[in-house]
Amino acid sequence: MRKASIVSIGNELLNGQTLNTNTLYLSERLFAIGIPVVSSYTIGDDIDSIVRMLNLASGDADIVLITGGLGPTDDDLTRQGLAKFLGSELQLQNNLLEKIQSIFASRNRPMPEKNNIQAYIPAGTKAIENIRGTAPGIRAEAEDKLFFVLPGVPSEMKQMFEESVLTELKRFAGEQAIAVLKLKCFGAGESSVAEKLGGLMQRGRNPLINCTVHYGVITLTIIATAKDKVKAQQMAEKDEQTLREILGELIYGTGEQTLAEVVGAKLAQQKKTIAVAESCTGGALAKLLTDTAGASRYFTYGWVTYSNTAKIKELGIKAELIEEDGAVSCRVAEAMAQGARKRAETDFAIGITGIAGPGGGSEQKPVGLVYISIDSGNGCETKRFVFPYGRDFMRLHAAQTALNMLRLKL
Amino acid sequence: MRKASIVSIGNELLNGQTLNTNTLYLSERLFAIGIPVVSSYTIGDDIDSIVRMLNLASGDADIVLITGGLGPTDDDLTRQGLAKFLGSELQLQNNLLEKIQSIFASRNRPMPEKNNIQAYIPAGTKAIENIRGTAPGIRAEAEDKLFFVLPGVPSEMKQMFEESVLTELKRFAGEQAIAVLKLKCFGAGESSVAEKLGGLMQRGRNPLINCTVHYGVITLTIIATAKDKVKAQQMAEKDEQTLREILGELIYGTGEQTLAEVVGAKLAQQKKTIAVAESCTGGALAKLLTDTAGASRYFTYGWVTYSNTAKIKELGIKAELIEEDGAVSCRVAEAMAQGARKRAETDFAIGITGIAGPGGGSEQKPVGLVYISIDSGNGCETKRFVFPYGRDFMRLHAAQTALNMLRLKL
């Protein structure tokens, strides 16, 4: 199987100025055509460092993609670095110079002297056309390895990659096909999911199963490699089936689906409506529900009853109840859900109350404590959680957990 | 001058799944204390590759920061890689095991067998405390070089870096002192800000002024380099003064301040209260306001009146008004603010109504249209905007714009 390595060049990538999004883009595109990226190197604008990284990258892989350092200013040294690596000289290409001159002419601007350098490429290499900027790319071959130099500006890089590089690379994809499936889970920790999966997650296994976690949402990525696309797809689907049998209702969706999307689709399909009454989450649950276009089909009302007065006045909660049990309590969460459902006349309503912190906790009611209640018309289901890791995590996790409780009811 | 290199570990960084934001964060923080990052390496979860990258990174620099691969699952191999690189064995640390066990106990969940591995670190190294997760970090020394292994999850990595790594690294800060100041702006585009600043933004200038933009919030970073800290700080402050003169009230804060924090602090200081009534933003404004701890001092009530019925029933808006002008209109935004202020008995109230899209637009009322109204007790200020770039941008931008309008009133 052909492999690729990526070299990113630019001081701005190493001094905190610029987020490197090019590597993500290129690795995703290469992965999709069955060329894995095995390493990635980032280095500043310095000729010898560039030579060194080109040596490392071409040691790792058959294809080296290089981005950045093609601009017209003195700190752009990728051309020179590539020439030194190849052991050749930079040569002026008249057709490139004319092209750059015509770009400036079309903008009615004089061409700065500095832009001349962009018409030079190492002897024996080929220019790659750039329709979005003045810097042409470069395609080089050396010792059976392929090198593509692309601009660092993402829009120019992407256009050039899609138009000029991808077609050539697809020829190498040939022998091996890759199928990727993603399963999204919620309701258990990463290690507990891994334990259930056991040997399925072993490195070197085909399909490979990767596990990542983001605010409680676990993504399992199944990566199947086979001779052809159909076979790879079958292998991935077989693993998907196995994972579904093992994880059951922990799996809420596939691909890039969010919990709110899945819950929203179920509500819309069943023609059910939902209202929410939030305290500690402060609108985060309503926001998640309305992130999805078309949410107005099922979401109608939300309250952020942050103060006790708001809970009493808007949701009809008895003052005595708050006095007796405290605002963060099972019965208040229940009363919030009931009050919201009654006022909004919806099928379901969710009440959330908790202590987001960092202050306000006690021994009996620690920071992170949250009660979530769902009123579905025939009684309330109320659960108690203690979420760790601080205010932001607690709030988002509580809102997601509420969605997950609702999903399991639908 | 001491130099640093960064090693990022994780298959997800090379197959298009996860954007590497850790390298940007770390390099920015190191840059600010005068330790340049000279190279960065990314590699998959594989012991030998990890060893190889640790060799390369420690060849480049005195300090190596490593992120990722500390999870409890079989694909997390950074501990093993570091042990092999150091030529030592992994050893169980009982205090770490107890810590992990207590995390699970506090959540009333059994600890999976798999998490045991997180209590192991290479012999001769030290654990770094993780208050946001189960994976401790690792600090190692070898041949006069320093290694810090941090989790890949950004929130855990940042907390651990700031609390445990930064203090030690500050000792190495070189002979050249760097002072960094950040100004946060809202209410104008990036290019318009750049145009106002003119030559101040020139590369090579000292202080260097960088400009980045994120959902409408523009961050201007002033980086001053001098012989000593005092001089660098003076230079940065002089530039800050110049920028403040040029940009005036476009600047809302400094450092990492958010608009909601600044508005919240002003409200608390002036002992004023705020309520919000949201339609298209669906809770996003309430969420922003309650992201800050202590928000209950000024934020009491919020409504997400997504349906017309909710607007009529909860905020007392006349049905005829919605029929005549439509729910997305100047007068409805005003009535929402007025209704919210009246019901919540607050000093201020904000009403937001708009078309988040992608559907629901028309020629007169395009997708992205939003009306924001603030009732401050002596009349409403209502503004009309059309925000581009899709649903998510529009919703967050509308919520931020509402906060900015309130800021300018306080």
Structure description:
2 copies of one chain form a homodimer. Chain A is α/β, with parallel strands linked by helices and 410 residues long. The first copy, chain A, has 3 domains: 4-173, MoaB/Mog-like domain (Molybdenum Cofactor Biosythetic Enzyme, Chain A), CATH 3.40.980.10; 177-254, Alpha-Beta Plaits; 259-409, Maf protein, CATH 3.90.950. Chain A is built from 13 helices and 17 strands. In chain A, the strands form 4 sheets. In chain A, strands 2-1-3-8-7-6 form a 6-stranded mixed sheet, with helices on both faces. In chain A, strand 7 (137-142) and strand 8 (145-150) form a beta hairpin. The radius of gyration of chain A is 28 Å and the shape is elongated. The two termini of chain A are 45 Å apart.
